[in-house]
Amino acid sequence: MAIQLDQVSYTYADKSLWRQTALHDITLGIPKGSLTGIAGATGSGKSTLLQLFNGILKPTQGAVNVLDVVIRAGEKSPKLLPLRRRVGLVFQFPEQQMFEDTVEKDLIFGPLNFGMSLEEAKERARNALLDMGLDLALLDRNPFRLSGGQMRKAAIASVLAMDPDIVVLDEPTATLDPVSRAELIAQLERLCRERGRTIIIVTHRMDELLPYADRWVLLKEGRIAFQGSGGELAADPAILEGCGLTVPHSLRYWRAVADRFGLHGEKPRLTAESLAKLIAGLSPAGAERSGEHEEKRDAHE
Ligand SMILES: Nc1ncnc2c1ncn2[C@@H]1O[C@H](COP(=O)(O)OP(=O)(O)OP(=O)(O)O)[C@@H](O)[C@H]1O
Ligand SMILES: [Mg+2]
C-alpha cells in the first residue's frame, strides 16, 4: 500500500477550546500505482484527509502510514521532510502554495530544496510547465498576476517538478475551462499508468474522473461511507445520494441503457464515446449504420 490509515480521527482545536472533529475512525488503504477519486459533500472532511497524507496534519487518534513512514497519534513524528518530497500535495486554493515573485522561482524552489543543481531544477521547471500545457513565457511572470486557471496549473507544475511518488490533488480542475480539465485528467492518468505514480484526486465533478479512477472513497460527515470501484457505484447509485451527492450523468446514462437492454452485470461504459459505440452496436438501425460506416471506411482504405 502507498497509504494506509488505521482508525484515524482528526480533531481541529484552537486556543478557545473550540473543537471540531473533522474525521472519525477512518480505516483506508490506497494501493501503489492506483488512481483514486475522493468525493463527499462540502465539509465532509476531504481536505482534512488529504493533509494527513503528507504529514501536514497529524492524526489525533490512530496511525497514518505513508510509504512506510508511520505517523501515530500521541507519539513524536518521524522526520517528515523526505515524505514531503515523495508526496506532492496540490491545495484546494492554489494561491496558498505560491509564494515567490516569479513562476520560475516557485517551480525551482522544491527541487533546489531537495538538493538538485540550479541547472537541473530549471530543466525540471520547464518540463513541468510544458507538461501542464503552459507557455514558457510564464516563467518570468509574477504568479499572483496569473489567471485563476493559470495559477492552478502553475501550482500543479511546481508539485510535479519534484517528481513525487504520490500526487494528491484537491479539486484540481475547479477553475479550469473544459478543454484544460480534460487535458489535466488525461495528464494525471498518464502519470499513473505510464510512470507508476499513485494519484489521489478530490473532486466535485465525478463525471470527469469516473472512466479513469480505479477506486473511489466517499466521505459523509467525516466518516467513510463507501470504498470501492466505479463499477460498484454504477450498480448502486443510491450510495451517492446517501452521501449528499448527485448521481453523475455518466452513471445515469449507463443505468438507463443497461435497464433498457438488460445489460446489468456488464462493464459500465462511462464515457460518451464508449456508450455511443455500445448503443450503435445494440440497436438494429445503429448496427446497420455503423456497418455502412465500416464498409465505406474499408472501401476508402
Ligand atoms: N482549520 C480549521 N479549523 C477548524 N475547523 C476546520 C478547519 N478546517 C476545516 N475545519 C472543519 O472540518 C470539517 C471538514 O472540513 P474540510 O475542509 O476537510 O471539508 P471538505 O470536505 O474539504 O469541504 P469542501 O468540499 O467545502 O472543500 C468542516 O466541518 C470544517 O468546518
Ligand atoms: Mg475541501
Strand order of the largest sheet: 6-7-8-3-9-10
Rg, rounded, reads 22 Å
Helix coverage percent: 40-55%
Count the strands?
10
What is the helix/strand order?
EEEHEEHEHHHEHEHEEHHHHH
Mean pLDDT: 90
Q: What class would the helix/strand composition place it in?
A: alpha/beta
Structure annotation, total helices: 12
Q: Spans with pLDDT under 50 lasting ≥5 residues?
A: none
Shape field:
globular
Characterize the largest beta sheet: strand count, sense, and whether it forms a barrel: 6 strands, mixed
> Distance N terminus to C terminus?
48 Å
Unique ligands = adenosine-5'-triphosphate, magnesium ion
Strand content is: 15-25%
Describe this structure in words.
This protein is an alpha/beta fold and 301 residues long. The protein is 42% helix and 22% strand. The chain is built from 12 helices and 10 strands. The chain has a 6-stranded mixed sheet, with helices on both faces. Strand 1 and strand 2 form a beta hairpin. Helix 4 packs across helix 5. It starts with a strand and ends with a helix. 36% of the residues are buried. The structure holds adenosine-5'-triphosphate (ATP) and magnesium ion. Adenosine-5'-triphosphate binds next to strand 2 and helix 1.
Question: Any chance you could write out the topology, listing elements then pairs?
Answer:
Layout: E1 3-13, E2 19-30, E3 35-40, H1 46-52, E4 61-66, E5 69-72, H2 81-86, E6 87-90, H3 103-113, H4 118-131, H5 148-160, E7 166-170, H6 178-195, E8 198-202, H7 206-209, E9 215-220, E10 223-228, H8 230-235, H9 238-242, H10 249-261, H11 272-282, H12 284-300
Parallel strand pairs: 3-8, 3-9, 6-7, 7-8
Antiparallel strand pairs: 1-2, 1-4, 4-5, 9-10
This protein binds adenosine-5'-triphosphate and magnesium ion.
